[in-house]
Design goal:
Layout: E1 3-8, H1 14-26, E2 30-35, H2 37-46, H3 51-56, E3 61-64, H4 76-79, E4 84-90, H5 92-99, H6 106-117, E5 121-125, H7 132-143, E6 147-150, H8 162-176
Parallel strand pairs: 1-2, 1-4, 2-3, 4-5, 5-6
Helix pairs in contact: 1-8, 5-6, 5-7
This protein binds flavin mononucleotide.
């Protein structure tokens, strides 16, 4: 069974992270999940279900606490066995911590370890507009080998529902790790 880690932070669009774990669970991945405290707050604002209700309906998910630096995920020797790490959505705060090598929670540590061990790391950033500091931090991540994916859905697949827009972005996340999916119709020219 292939392993991925998914971290959900307190940017708007927590639904992207939720949909991502749903799809990865359906694709039979083993998912290690970390949800920041602020992400739980945003979830309450943006979603009808609690985290526990969502997780109860999914298989293959191990939940880790944000404060738990003793988690296996904090170790490079463990993380090198992972297909990749998604931080989705990624707040500009978490972006700043990782870009500057500071660890105040397990999510920052996972980001740091992924970069040093060259494990694919994808940050789905959601903020608007961007400041120079945001852009500089994103550049640092890219220069260190990470992937920055803006939470910006496209419209060429003629989305009809909000779910189509969400699935487009989640599909782009899966594309970064070359994970097969049918979440959106590709442009055929
Ligand atoms: C309802 C709500 C929406 C937010 N939306 C965003 C956002 O879209 N992008 C962002 O970078 N921060 C957003 N924030 C601010 C972050 O939650 C805040 O920076 C927090 O410190 C992030 O912590 P975390 O990265 O540990 O989850 C939002 C906060 C709240 C309460």
């Amino acid at each position: 069974m292939q392993k991925v880690a998914v971290c959900i932070t307190g940017a708007s669009g927590v639904i992207y992270g939720i949909r991502l774990i749903e799809v990865l669970s359906q694709l039979d991945f083993r998912i290690d999940l970390v949800v920041s405290k602020t992400a739980r707050l945003v979830l309450k604002e943006e979603h009808d279900k609690t985290l526990e209700e969502i997780l109860n309906s999914l298989k293959g998910i191990n939940l880790h606490e944000e404060e738990d630096f003793t988690s296996p995920l904090a170790s490079g020797s463990v993380l090198v066995k992972y297909k990749g790490i998604f931080i989705a959505p990624c707040s500009t705060s978490t972006l700043a911590y990782i870009a500057n090598g500071i660890n105040r929670n397990l999510i920052h540590r996972i980001g740091e370890v992924a970069l040093k061990e060259k494990v694919p790391l994808v940050l789905l950033i959601r903020e608007s507009p961007y400041s120079k500091i945001h852009l500089e931090n994103m550049l640092k991540i890219i220069e260190a080998g990470g992937i920055i994916l803006p939470a910006s859905p496209a419209f060429y697949h003629k989305p009809k529902r909000m779910e189509d827009l969400i699935d487009f972005v989640v599909g782009k996340l899966l594309d970064t790790l070359r994970i097969e999916h049918n979440l959106y119709k590709r442009w055929r020219g």
